[in-house]
């Protein structure tokens, strides 16, 4: 293949096949709703309803979308039977906020082995329309770049290769989505506009331009933003181009071309917008979006942009798969940011050089190029403005909403890089292609894969099994926290290994909880098995596998303690735990392990108290006057100069003037929730003890004394210390 475009298309089509294999059904961006639209056309033989009723239908927010993509995608989908139908089983533990590079509940839907044939095959076939849309987009980028840039085939091939291998372009070309067809027709519109600017307008070119814009609008409403550069292009033609004709001829050419463009647009797409207005009272059909939960539809206000939202938009423009929750490492995006920065420098350099040439009286090498670049920039600016407005109505941090101007973005990028050095522009595609090739195997497929099942040798390597059985469904083989101590604000990974005992129709939830005093749950994590990929309803008997649940520890954790870990299975429908028993048939203990969770210190501590003991008393808080029969707290402030392996017991003694013991409160620190063997070197511990005075305690003056001892040997740690006098009064 001598033509570079054919090589680019071959590589692009190969990658779309790989991506389509890697993306399970319904895991594309809003793929269920897009396919529901297609299925509606096939089964209902009419367009979806809009407005609130549309939101309540399976098509949901897509019901207001123009129909062209869905009509085309329904053609291959009709080749398959409708039965069994596509069923969307939502994953209740789908998460946006987890590590985007790590497989963990990235799936929006639960996937069953029987999801084959019928409607599922139709969905796969419908993806063909997206693949062909992406190929058309690449062709249009090539044509646009060849028309705009003076470097001819070299720059056009560079632009086509860069556009074709953007990972997100391949992703949206590999599942049921109208974004790439909208991008293709929008780029076609810019291409035809560029030809008119270079070659002149007229009836045929105007009609073709209007039809192309109509096709784009008949795919997705936001493609209408391309009308801005079209209008500016006609204005430039009307004001006068570098041709020896009169201003009247310029205006006549502009009006003729614009008139035929409007006619072409109305013939192709006008009927759809008129229908939406007559039936639903809205030309654009966007009001359906206002019924979703995250909608804030209302007056447009000039507000400061949310930079976090625009950061996410930037990421999902280049590479953010699934529902933008599967992403590469953040440094990858800096590579794309660097390319954009270099392109901007190149475009600035282009302007400077043109001004210098004009000042020197040199003739312009290509008088149309600056105008064409401005038109491309206007498409980008208009798209950004439209998205800024849309973000005030809907939470929509999706880079694909900028795809109507994607062709213009790529041309501007290649133009800027070419100005710096042609080789830089020719090789820029190597940045996206590396990620594009790796993503299906590194990010996408692993995000939805079943857990790795262990063979007998790997199971034996886990050690002695807990053998905790939950009904006749599951056995908990082991629970292993990745760390014995975790700070507030961090994440605790806990490995849970399971053996499947039987089959069930119920999907049980795994819960992992960190429990403190009073059975207070301070941190938790809920998920289906396989981190969402292996729910119990699809289990096969006798499988052994391990999940690593990453449990976030709240930043506002109040106290550093050794918390207990609770594990079990929950029936979400009844909100009841699945009963379990140990090998002897006894009910399972409430906890399966323990871990130290460290709270963030509020203030810096003073200088450690003097002494040589591993644990030293730094101070105490108690009431110096007490009433017999009452229970009041004694708070001891300890300083651990070093870690120790022994769990010491604290004694708090009340003694009379002769040194006789009158009352005592012996026990582990913090009522057993923070044994001394868990204390770390340099740590300060506030240890509260409930001190009960017998009702028969005679009034008088006493001394309060504290210390530590080893409960196994009775040996004390350091010397006891007197806290001071206590006056006891009669009850």
Description:
Helices cover 40% and strands 18% of the residues. The protein folds into 3 domains: 4-89 and 114-285 and 308-446, no CATH class; 456-598, Immunoglobulin-like, CATH 2.60.40.2550; 615-729, Sandwich (Immunoglobulin-like). Strands 3, 5, 6, 8, 9 and 11 form a 6-stranded mixed beta sheet that branches. A 5-stranded antiparallel beta sheet has the order 7-4-2-1-10, with no helix packed on it. With 731 residues, the protein is α+β, with helices and mostly antiparallel strands.
Observed structural traits:
Immunoglobulin-like, 731 residues, 5-stranded antiparallel beta sheet, elongated, alpha+beta
Helices and strands in order, then pairings?
Layout: H1 4-22, H2 31-44, H3 51-56, H4 68-77, H5 118-148, H6 153-164, H7 167-172, H8 179-199, H9 203-217, H10 227-239, H11 247-280, H12 307-318, H13 330-359, H14 369-391, H15 406-420, H16 422-427, H17 430-448, H18 456-460, E1 468-470, E2 474-481, E3 485-487, E4 491-500, E5 509-516, E6 520-527, E7 544-552, E8 561-571, E9 576-577, E10 580-581, E11 593-598, E12 615-621, E13 625-627, E14 631-640, E15 649-655, E16 661-664, E17 683-692, E18 700-709, E19 721-729
Parallel strand pairs: 3-11, 13-19
Antiparallel strand pairs: 1-2, 1-10, 2-4, 4-7, 5-6, 5-8, 8-9, 8-11, 12-14, 14-17, 15-16, 15-18, 18-19
Q: What's a quick, concise take on this entry?
A:
This protein is of the alpha+beta class and 731 residues long. The protein has helices at residues 4-22, 31-44, 51-56, 68-77, 118-148, 153-164, 167-172, 179-199, 203-217, 227-239, 247-280, 307-318, 330-359, 369-391, 406-420, 422-427, 430-448, 456-460; strands at 468-470, 474-481, 485-487, 491-500, 509-516, 520-527, 544-552, 561-571, 576-577, 580-581, 593-598, 615-621, 625-627, 631-640, 649-655, 661-664, 683-692, 700-709, 721-729.
